[in-house]
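Changelog-linked ticket: iron/sulfur cluster example.
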Amino acid sequence: MEYPDKTLIRQIETLSGQGISDCYQCGRCTSGCPVVDEMDLNPRQTILLLQLGKAEEVLGSNGIWLCASCMVCGTRCPCEVDYARIAEACRAIVLRAKNSKVDPDSIKDENIEEIPQQAFVASFRKFAG
Amino acid sequence: MRYTYYPGCTLYTTARSLNDCALKVAERIGFELAEMPAWTCCGAIYNTNSDDLAASVGPVRNLARASQLGDKLVTLCAACYNVLKRTNTALNDPEKQDVAKRLLDYVEEPFERPIEVIHYLEVLRDDIGWDQIRGKVTRPLSGLKVASYYGCLMVRPPKVLQFDDPTNPMCLDDLMAAIGAEPVQFDFKTKCCGGYLVVSQHDVAVKCSRRIIDNAADYNADVLVTTCPLCHYNLDALQRDMKAEDPDFQPIPVLYFTQLLGLATGLRKRELALDYNKIDPRPVLKKVGNVS
Ligand code: SF4
Ligand code: SF4
């Protein structure tokens, strides 16, 4: 993926309102994350890569798409870093470059009948560009 | 007592039973929920990107309209509660007044008075009180072991929501005790069910939800209760997948807390809308002698 803006870290900080360097890598966020087992990069590692300036790697990882926005990470962080907002900002950058992660046409009819629309609205807002 | 009430979209469709029981129970307990006119979707998730003002237009418009009707707005869906309460807090944040002004100018609805967003459970706990509710119980749910599931959206972020203890909330447990049921210890009260991941990463939601059901089973819960339509769907409907993956899996019914409240305060069986539950709760409710 190519991104027109070369100052990705700054963009992530502005969008999320979080300071990447505020994180001291303790891992409390990650120890409470319900989906960490599925992630290639966990929340702590994601922030570490951003601290090292490797934003492209983060934007190409699956971790940011597995976040369920449960808000455990931000609640636990001793440095008041809200990782969920960082993940949200990363997703926005990818989605705004027109890379949707959810395809409404791929949803099965029986699921459309059954799943609460609250889930569809949330999913499309999180994952559609 | 009369409150302005915001039902939200899902309470009109898949979560009808959450809504309908709540309205009928309110009548029995002695307060009224007056649905606000011209409400729109709250957006289902609270936006956190600093430049995405459009995502806040829906909730801001709803709050402004509600402020024209009274000083409290009652919600019942956990997601609506979360989004509207956080939006309301942001609107009043002295450091975000420039954004607040832009949003309010855009929605062209006057904000007539400061408004408080509360949850139905807070009406029961703070305005009515457990003693009064206990007095309305005609059919105590004696012996029914209930695991109270709060999920994420009722308690986080704790600084803004201030609903209850964020790691060990007790509001639902106390309500269950007030209607005669037995609240069980439950470690995963606030562990995420996977939420909207069910749409795009179904298996991840099954895994997250399975952990919660297993934990409730460890404490011998007969049923789980929730106040979120999406948690309800994941915890209830996805047990089908859990069973398919693991033949030894033992299903546990998942109810809206308003259904049990309705049962205890004497709503008729039909009014409880138990048919909509995927895992049929009737056998276990019968076991404790409660469904006529
Ligand atoms: S809890 Fe906070 S400080 Fe610790 S690793 Fe996570 S973001 Fe960094
Ligand atoms: S908000 Fe996302 S990253 Fe943070 S703990 Fe929850 S699922 Fe994990």
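Closing comment: Example verified and attached. The longest strand of chain B covers residues 2-6. Chain B touches chain A at residues 8-10, 13-15, 41, 43-45, 47-52, 55, 77, 79, 152, 156-158, 166, 191-192, 194-201, 204, 207-208, 211, 229-230, 232-233, 237 (CB under 8 Å).
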